[in-house]
Amino acid sequence: MVNKTKSYNTSLYDWQIYVILALTILVFLASSCKDFNLKRDAIKPNILFIMSDDHAYQAISAYGHNLNHTPNIDRIGGEGVIFLKGFVTNSICAPSRAVMLTGMHSHLNGKVDNLQPFDWNQDNVAKRLQRAGYQTALIGKIHLQGQPQGFDYYNILPGQGQYYNPDFIINGRDTQYHGYVTQITTDLALEWLEDKRQHEQPFMLLYHHKAPHRPWMPEPKYFGLFDSVDFTLPANFYDDYQGRPAAALHEMGIDQHLDIVYDLKMLDRSELFQTRYRKYFQSMVDRMDEEQRTQWNAHYDLLIQEFQSQTLSGKELTQWKYNRYMQDYLSTIQSVDDGVGQILEYLDQNNLTENTIVIYTSDQGFYLGEHGWFDKRFMYEESFRTPMLIRYPREIRPGTRIDALVQNIDFAPTFMDFAGIEVPPNIQGQSLRNLLRDTSSQWRQSIYYTYYEYPGEHNVNRHYGIRTDRYKLIHFYYDLDYWEMYDLKSDLNEMNNLYNDPAYVQIQKSLHQALQDLRVHYGDSDAQDQQHLNRFLMDKK
Ligand code: SGN
Ligand code: CA
Question: What total of structural domains would you count in the chain?
């Protein structure tokens, strides 16, 4: 009988067998790793881009300001990343959306303000993803006139949209839904996810809320949620705007410019308060059906009675206005947070969480009383910054915090990178992908800002500027022609304009140079500013 072991042993020693075995395992592992990498690169993650309108980062609990509680939005950052320095390039609605779609600054995509038309014929990230095999959908607010291009399905609010029983445009056809806009937008997104998309194809869904945009009309279930809260005025609420002439010219003061009927909801039936916006606001309330109006009146009538019985004045009146503003603003956010929760839940239940990049952001930030303001537009932190939270379990570690200077210009190239599309050179943003995986990756050291809508609502002068990690330099170049400079380390509230301060001469010089370099880098110039202005003034005639 042949002794197999023995005969085997005669040709190979034990250690040789082990080496062969080990090598075989190594070769197998290496080849399977290669396969894994191939598969990983071939994965086309879904993209769920959630954008709200005018949502201040101060009003997201994950940012730590303690004003409200947004557990669902927080969840995105908790299971992924929170950007601590996320900015827009132009703090106003339609331009911000144009930047997001094109990956280019306003002066190049052409949508410099809310008034000029947006050219849908240019390439955009949705068109590019569509060509790469994605199905694309746009639901909710977009605020860019014309027919959206690049979407297999769209169902959008015309213009600013309405809170109650809103009109929508579904693939070019007008329609109206019954109910509250935030819930409707969420239901449409869920319906698309469940019934309208091809389940085996990757998707990019833009799920865009109207809330919390002015005039901050809450959903009935949240009436009164913050009514017992006395909000603390921000430290610089009573700003005197010294050394900042553009800020002094603002028309967005909580004290002076909020309309008592339209913004603060004192639509008294006796019509005692006859304000500029009364009719406009009445038309919004008139959209409600019997039941909605009864609920609305039951809540606001009490507040109106209380207000009328108090005859407030001076700082008491100002505090009352601030509370009223904050109460309604924050209440509308509660519905947005619910919507986000419903969508995240859908992903969980349909095995989509792992393979879907979820982004939460706003078209810009907003003032919640800082400098005494509501609205946005200025390059000061509260409106220049915007919330940015991203979750993608495959590549982002839970609990990541990123301090790099990122901008809404980076969204388009990021999505293209994840979709495996080469980013063309005319795209000005940078993919965030490496930064998401390794927070210490090389990144830009400064960001560029422009604002054009002047003369216009809220009276914010045209300006452009640069922000580095520590400093900010701004040029108000039209009507007013002067500079502002801030040291954000010592003055995050931007109260102290350091321009021409002898102690900062060198810094001022280097910021000027850096700003000029950025203007060249992004292809912007004084001549272009002048062109935009001329066009704006011509259109206004
Ligand atoms: C409306 C608002 C403004 C707001 C702009 C732009 N006025 O015009 O307060 O600044 O939208 O907002 S309102 O009387 O119509 O409410 S943006 O977010 O669309 O840019
Ligand atoms: Ca906005």
Answer: 2
pTM: 0.92
Ligand showing the shortest atom-to-Cα distance for residue 263: 1
- Compute the distance from residue 378 Cα to the ligand 1 centre, in Å: 14
* Ligand nearest, relative to CA of residue 94: 1
The boundaries of the domain holding residue 253 are 227-320
Q: Which of 214, 283, 453 to mutate to test the pocket of ligand 1 (most atoms within 8 A of CB)?
A: 214
State whether 391 and 473 are in the same domain: yes
Q: Which of 98, 475, 406 is nearest to 107 (CA)?
A: 98
- CA atoms of 376 and 448, how far apart (whole Å): 17
Q: Which residue is closest in CA terms to ligand 1's atom 15?
A: 214
Domain end point (choices 286, 301, 320): 320
531 and 411 housed in the same domain: yes
Which residues' Cβ are closer than 6 Å to ligand 1? 53-54, 92-93, 114, 143, 160, 213-215, 375, 457-458
> How far is 175 from 451, CA to CA, in rounded Å?
34
Burial class (CB in 10 A: 0-12, 13-18, 19+), 149: middle
- If asked whether residues 378 and 256 sit together in one domain, one would say no
CA-to-CA distance for 480 and 241, rounded, in angstroms? 15
In the chain (541 residues long), the average pLDDT of successive 10-residue segments reads 37 58 56 40 90 98 97 98 98 98 98 95 98 98 95 97 98 97 98 97 98 98 97 98 98 98 95 93 97 98 96 96 98 98 98 98 98 98 98 98 98 98 97 96 97 97 98 96 98 98 98 98 97 91 81
Ligand nearest to the CA of 362: 2
Do 354 and 243 fall within a single domain?
Answer: no
- For residue 21, what pLDDT is reported? 62
Ligand 1 nearest atom to the CA of residue 374, by list position: 9
End-to-end CA distance of the chain: 108
